[in-house]
Input
Amino acid sequence: MATVKITTGLVALLGFSSMVNGQISPKGNLILCDCGIGDDKEHPDWSTSRQMNWYDDIKWPASASTYPEAPEMAVEIPYKDGIYPWIPRGATGTMPNGQVWTAYVEDGTPDGFKAGNAVSSKDGKDKLNCWAYHGRPVSAAVNKTISHDAICWTAFVCNHNNNPPPRPKDMDSHSSSAPASTAPPKTTFYTKPPKTVTVTSSTSGQPAPTSNPKQGQLEIYAGVNPRFINWQDTWQAFINLFVWDKNTGRCIGGPVRGQGFNITIECAGIQIDEDSHMTLLLIKALRDVGLKSLWFNQNPIIPGGTNNNQTASNWVVMPEAFSLRATDVATNKLVGRLSYKTHYDAFLATPCSTCDNARFNQSFFDPIISAVEGSYPKFNNFTVQAQCDPWIACD
Output
């Protein structure tokens, strides 16, 4: 630990002796940092401060245990209204030379994927691509209130490149602490009162028919691949590809082309009544999950554009495969299914992706429940189970 403290002090000395005015370098990097992780003994996973680091031309060492050169400039970014700053609505920092940067990033983006952009207000034209890149120690912290030796770790790296920085083999991510073993499906329930039915007494002397205690129960199973792809368009454009035949209830579209992959789409479902169809409800469920869940991360919108007459790019970082299955519990029959699956052009040489079970939260379950409620009154009791499938994706 003594070595770390000495190194941190050296970084601080070098970093803040070079805060000078200058032009924006074409090799410049703006790093959004989480600092002081582990310094709060009651909450060791929390950061104690956040800051922006500016580098004219950062050189990343081959090992994550070695710091890059100290930043030319740095500024602390406080919590605004008690909210973590690295989010889509944007965080603004003014560097010591007067340079103002605003970063718009989607905080749930998995590492290695584009998470948003950072925009300079100096001339209204300079825009950086921001990449999710958690867990690399990078500099000393500006805020030393809790610890004089507080270290900053990368959260997002913004640069002029079309790819994130290299990730050394000895780099561990603070956001990737999921165990390497499967967990039981996460489950949620919702019940609506069944539609009132007037029962007339029988005069034939025959006993009344026995009711099925599982009548009206609908069970939804969601399977999510833990590895992600980058869909280079809007989420609504992807949903529009689920073209289906109202007579058969089946999807009729062909494979969808992405950058280096094809996506196959399948769906089928029963007619519930004259106004609703299970296929349509499952498509709605996928659409709404994509808009609200941490499993799907879309490009943040930069207010007012960037004043550089460039067409704004759209993308969605989403699981490479996703499926929904709806089962009538009373009959144990499948009444609806929907899925998409990615097929790559070449063998993947990327690291294994392990399930992040924390993404199965209320923002995942609620949109599914809300969508399938459209099957009422045929179904009035809803169960949703969700699980990574597979738990670890390696090839």
